[in-house]
Amino acid sequence: MRPRDKYTHLKAMSKERRHKQASSRATLPLPALNKLRGSRQPFQTLSELRSSLPQTLLPALVSAIPRFPQNGLTVVPRFGTPFDRFRDDIPLFNPTSIKREIDWAVAMFQAHSMQISEFVQAKKKLEDLLLVGDFNEASSVIERIESTAGFSICIMDLKIAHLQLSLGLEAQKTYSRSLAAGRKAGMVSMLSYFSSWRNEETSDPRRFKKEIPENTAKWNVRSAFREYVLFRTTGEFDYATEENASTLLRYDQSYSIVDFYETFVCLAVLYSSDAKLAEFSHFADRISELADEIVDPRLAKIAFLKTAAPQRLDACVNPDWATEDAYLRGQLESVIDSSLRRIEIYPGDLRTRHLAAIARIKLGVPITEGTGIGALIDRTLSSIVSKVIETDQPMIDTDRIALNWRYLGHPATLDAIVERYASSSPLANTALQLRAFCGDSFVDPEVMTQLPATCRSAFGKWMNLNAAGAIAPKFYSSNTIPNEETLAPAIQIEKGIQRARIDGKLDEALNLSYELNHSQSVLDRRIAARWIAHLRLSRQEIREAVRSVATACVIDKNSMAMMPVAECAAALDATARRELASDVATPIILDIYTRNFDGRYESERNYAYEDFLLSHGATKPSQLKENFDALFGVLFIYYLRYICVPEVMQSSIAFGSQRELEEERLAVCAMLAEMDPAHLEVYEEESREVTRKLVVRRGVREVEQSKIFVDTNAIRRWAEKNLREKFARYAALVQVGFDVAALGIEEAIINLISGAKVSEEYLHFPKDETSELLVGMVSALMNECLTSSEHGLDCYLSMRIRHGALAGQLRAPLEKEHIICQREGPRGLYTSNEFWTAHYWHWNQSDFTTALDARLRKFSEEFDQSIEHFAAEYIQIRTSEKPLGMFDTPISALFIRILASNISERDMSFEDFVELCLSIFWTLLGKCLIAINNTIDENIAPDLDRLFSGLRSDVRSMARERGKSIDELDSALVKSQTGTRQALQQVKSWFILAKPVGQHFFSFDELIEIGLECVRNIHPEFSPSLKTRYTGEIIYFDQLPIFSDIFFIVFDNIRKHSGEVSPNVRIAGILESDRLQIEIHSDVCQPQIQAEHIARVELIHETIRQAQGGYLRAVRSEGGTGLIKLRNILRRGSEPSHLDFGFSDNSFYVKMEVPLVLVLTPPEAGKEGKVGGNSGNRRRRQQT
Amino acid sequence: MAEILVIEDDDNKREQLCLFIRREFPQCVIQEARSLHSGILAVRHRAPALVLLDMTLPNYDPSPDDAGGQTHSFGGREFLKRLERYEIKLPVIVVTQFTTIGTGPQATSLDDLDRQLEVSFPGVYVGSVYYHAAIHSWKEKLLALARNFVQ
Known about the structure:
A: mainly alpha, elongated, B: alpha/beta, five-stranded parallel sheet, two-stranded antiparallel ribbon, 9 strands
């Protein structure tokens, strides 16, 4: 029977029955009727009566509801109310039991049964049109529905989805805005807003479903309202709570009758998944009655579950027996042919679409392109069945369909189909299958096994009655395999597995599963592997289960979703891991779980990695090379490729440093290249990347450790020029007996160390010409080390710590949480904190946001001042101008005497004298660094803590005064405070004396990456897209700190000027003769190139032009662009250099010439004094 | 002679802890480790009477050539897990400078972490002490906890 015939037949039946029932219905007793008619508060009276009257009188009560609005207000929604008269402010009835809500709903629906039947039919028509992509006709149907049934939330939701699909974002937004226009903020405005957001093409349905509960949890509303909004926006609610179901019905009965009806049916379908639930019983009890009056296959199916009366299923669409039979016989071409015919008539038959998808995949036939939801479903099914797409997109599409079209019938069926491919169990999910069965008008013959036992026989009878001669009814309604020779072997085998499992013959089921595993079809093999794993686990055969799942996932990684990875990982407890330590499948399962699910078993994965090695007599993977033959295979390759990576290996005690880890990975890559030549390029690429990372990390480390730096080579050159002559004179004076050292110096040293009294003589400088000469030389050298504007400590403190790095490091955690405001220029005011003021804007309390903004700006100022004070007063060379400066190297009389004694006794050379002075300098500097670390711990950290505490306390009390809480802001403040403490720890690590590292060489590209990494250490969000080009002879540079200073300044300027976090940056290096030309161009957002930026850059040019020898000024004025400092770095070479920078054609550029003498250490550094520009200085890398 | 193992990467804090031990438990030998890795090596080769453990630790000892690898926000917890793995039972007191450990969704207050560790490592985890260079109350709390294990 065609559905339209069925519908006409049922319509006539319904009309007849309704007349009969209307005549037999009880009438409302007069007192109740008078109470209702005479009430001044008819709504309240109705609410009380609907709870107190016997159920049999509810239809009479519905008939007696006043037809006309009182005081302009309707008491209950009326069928057909158009949008302009639609009210979303009708009060809610008093809560009552779910049973009474159902009774009330049934009474309401019975009163509108004809109209509801028409609505259901029209909605089905709309669904078919949307599936085939006839959007114009779909628009007409929506209009017709709204003109007869009136405005409803469910049709509004479908209309938004339809507009998005057919006309795009702008159309759906226009419609959504039109709904809110001219209305007070109410349910319609809010739901249309959420629906519009959800339907945007870029919305991720999973994130939407996660965000909405998080957002609504913050609303200060009744929990019932929140539950209702969640249900309406995400389709989800906690149906285990009876109260929730009655809440939803209570809310929806106040909007529109069709919404009320759709929610009622939706809840009934949800509860149909568990016939044991009391709620199902309440619904089902009344639905049989309703199904007699309203033509809706969903009601008929629920009534069937309750009564097991097969004739109930006559309201549904018959299965497509031709396609079903062709599928069972393995006649895949026929499946495709017959499915096309079927889908033309019944576009919503997802069972047929599913079988067609399987047939197409097995035959390798591409799907026909088309528009509409049907085409999207076909594409999604193809992707999910074949699993050839490695992204999550098909599952996202499924979720999007389920969410945005949930008022239609097919999404529940799609959900149930997809679940078969996303579940690790071969057993169907009964709840999902039953919901799909009840939620749609089609019948899937496979649902038979999921039906309650009471219904199975009736279902079988119904199938057999409706499919004369077909084999599908026999196949699905029987536990045994029909005596049918033409069944496809794979289908026969799987049926055999199911039968053997039910009969408890697990050996037989397992044997059949292995047989199926030999199928040519990937899909069949996946099904077989899932059965094998399931059966092994059910027999507690952990080793075999783990091995089979690991093998299936490694050989066919797309089968992962169908494998019980989580179950296997859970089964690998400490005992099992010990027993299975030598099996490579053990770490693999734990690794697959960690990569694809969550980090619950990360430690266990790491331990299993190590246990596997130990059980094979190794501590490092590279030691397994000797066991190649025994271990060779896909699983071992997986182990080496994905598990023997630094992230995992670092948990082993076999490695003592990050470098050892990386080098081991290189060894593993070499093994893999040999074992798995098919992926040779991958391993070679990884090896190159690991090597590059090693070089960059070493470079960054070198730069980090060079923040406390003195260019000792330059100091030696300075000493050569300025002190050699004095030293010669001193030596001559000593030779003729004018010695500063006195006898007994050793005794004085012993006394000093032991704490005994040191003779007064040694605590004062000797007052004579010789001693003055020595003190003068030492003081001058110390002074040069500390204050030289070109190579002294102060120059590097300025460039590497005070200039930007310190503030950047400490501000970064606050910027991440949007706590700190920006300053407009070095002495400007602080800009508003737009993030947090906008965050609390919805409180509608402008005085709070103004006060909050002022407090955050004040905090920002205090925070910056605190850092600036630390930099400007403490991280300084101690002078009369900077009395708090912590870098001071006072020369004591005892030191001078020791020095003099050393010179006299050893007949010291000038070079040794300089080295000894430098050694004393480093010793004294070491003490300064300890003092700075203590100052950070004892002064700076508590100061910053106090600022945070004050801010937290103030903003909390500001909110408290207004009866509000500021949990998010408080949490951000705590995170910022913790981040600042961590950043301070990092700052402390700058103040150490680096132990000398060997001489390292870096290529031009590596130097750029190191410079960038140094900026990214402070501003991790900065991620430019780099293109580098190098022209000229390939050489390697060893003066990393100078390049690092250059690129740090350049990248920091790019970051400031580009106006974006990922600007395109082009860097060209050209080596010509004795200099390296570097050109850097960075894209700049147009609004960023403003007059003030250009003026500022011009000012810097002018400063550089005028500042002859003005470097000290530049050193002392922190916080600028750093370009002046860059100029001075380049000037350090003995030859003239060139620097230009500015804005041009939407880009910021820096062009410079770096003399090679500056960046290549000459042979015998410091001894020859001068460096030529010849190729003799150009080092090639000594390979590591 | 009883040994106390101090696992701490911050030189100043480690020095302060060592000073504290020397003053309060002069009879004890102090052993020092600066990373998760060296801490684990230390307990595998010796059996200290007590471990003072930092929570945020680098994987390896820093060297001129190597910054110490990844820094684990919950390195102390990882250390306790390793004790469990190697079946080593030692009393451990966490001494941290942070009131919130970790960042982002993993951020955990010291109080919460204290409760978690108590449940996860019974019989090993003794308690936690909030260390602040400028506040001396940490010494009293640490003394009260440590006394039970070092006489």
